[in-house]
């Protein structure tokens, strides 16, 4: 599972930083989480191929989280996209997209499936390689976080043991599914003799704009990675609360309580030019913290 940051600033672009967008790559499938202004340019800059994007998730309808979407949707059509695209977002986004397409008499050359987000905690996407659960955040308007979980790819083949028992590679898929193997003479080779546990599923929680809340803590417990907004430093905690945002200390507190492995910070206010103080502040609570720098890829 790889997270690539495309935008790490809050409401305004500043100091070369862009509004919120990031991708999560799972077995070659690219999930786009939020789509702030300029996202398609950032995708080009950092080599994110739109052909690999089939699922886009929008946390809420503040412009810094979706103003890049109409452009991206339009470009995909101009570039001859055929594959369907699934868009998961608050219900209010649909008439906006419909109006933008209608006034220009634009017909997309691919199917755009709109999935309005539910109010509660619910699995909203479920494929062979990943699932996504949305959960409510507290941000003054309807706002959602997303938990991306990879699917296990089955058991891991032990080639030397298979060779010992004389099992040909054509039977490996069945072994990966956990089946025992029956030899031509009727002897049964137990699955556990020739395979080992596959890689454990990974969990990545995307906590977009929110005040500090532990309401979703049980869901993200033990996550391999947590992204949490840190719009302000602790000295501006009162302003953070007033504007329904969090501080670096609060993001770190949540990561620590969730027993996460890694914390990624982002959504920095334009009042801060330097970002290192965010890392320093969070590290006093949770040591494995990184600043989500644009263009950087983080393997979880
Ligand atoms: Zn925002
Ligand atoms: Zn917001």
Automatic annotation (TrEMBL):
Key words, A-Z: Endonuclease, Hydrolase, Metal-binding, Nuclease, tRNA processing, Zinc
Q: Which InterPro entries match?
A: RibonucZ/Hydroxyglut_hydro, RNase_Z/BN
Q: Identify which residues the record assigns to the active site.
A: 64 (proton acceptor)
Query: Which ranges does the record mark as transmembrane?
Result: none
Q: Which reaction does it catalyse?
A: Endonucleolytic cleavage of RNA, removing extra 3' nucleotides from tRNA precursor, generating 3' termini of tRNAs. A 3'-hydroxy group is left at the tRNA terminus and a 5'-phosphoryl group is left at the trailer molecule
Give me the residues that bind Zn(2+) 2, please: 64-65, 209, 267
Q: Which domain of life is it from?
A: Bacteria
Cofactors demanded by this protein = Zn(2+)
Residues that coordinate or bind Zn(2+) 1:
60, 62, 139, 209
Q: What is its EC number?
A: 3.1.26.11
How is its cofactor bound, per UniProt? Binds 2 Zn(2+) ions.
The record's listing under HAMAP family reads: RNase_Z_BN (MF_01818)
- NCBIfam families according to UniProt: PRK00055.1-3
Q: How does it assemble?
A: Homodimer.
Protein task: Zinc phosphodiesterase, which displays some tRNA 3'-processing endonuclease activity. Probably involved in tRNA maturation, by removing a 3'-trailer from precursor tRNA.
The similarity comment for this entry is:
Belongs to the RNase Z family.
Q: What is this protein called?
A: Ribonuclease Z
In the record, what lineage is assigned to the organism producing the protein? Bacteria, Pseudomonadati, Bacteroidota, Chitinophagia, Chitinophagales
């Amino acid at each position: 599972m790889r997270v690539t940051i495309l935008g790490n600033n809050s409401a305004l672009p500043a100091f070369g930083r862009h509004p919120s967008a990031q991708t999560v790559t799972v077995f070659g499938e690219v999930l786009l989480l939020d789509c702030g202004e300029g996202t398609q340019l950032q995708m080009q800059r950092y080599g994110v191929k739109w052909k690999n994007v089939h699922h886009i998730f929008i946390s809420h309808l503040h412009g810094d989280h979706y103003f890049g979407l109409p452009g991206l949707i339009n470009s995909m059509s101009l570039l001859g996209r055929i594959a369907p695209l699934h868009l998961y977002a608050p219900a209010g986004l649909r008439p906006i997209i419909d109006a933008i397409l209608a006034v220009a008499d634009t017909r997309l050359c691919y199917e755009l499936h709109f999935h309005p987000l539910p109010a509660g905690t619910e699995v909203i996407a479920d494929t062979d390689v990943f699932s996504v659960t949305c959960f409510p955040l507290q941000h003054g308007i309807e706002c959602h976080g997303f938990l991306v979980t990879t699917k296990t790819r089955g058991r891991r083949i032990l080639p030397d043991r298979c060779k010992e028992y004389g099992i040909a590679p054509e039977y490996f898929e069945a072994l990966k599914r956990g089946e025992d193997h029956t030899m031509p003479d009727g002897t049964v080779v137990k699955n556990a003799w020739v395979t080992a546990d596959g890689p454990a599923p990974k969990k990545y929680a995307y906590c977009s704009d929110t005040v500090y809340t532990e309401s979703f803590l049980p869901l993200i417990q033990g996550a391999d990675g947590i992204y949490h907004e840190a719009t302000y430093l602790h000295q501006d905690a009162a302003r953070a609360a007033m504007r329904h945002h969090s501080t670096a200390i609060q993001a770190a507190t949540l990561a620590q309580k969730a027993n996460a492995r890694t914390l990624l910070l982002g959504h920095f206010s334009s009042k801060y030019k330097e970002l290192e103080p965010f890392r320093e502040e969070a590290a006093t609570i949770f040591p494995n913290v990184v600043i989500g720098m644009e263009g950087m890829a983080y393997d979880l």
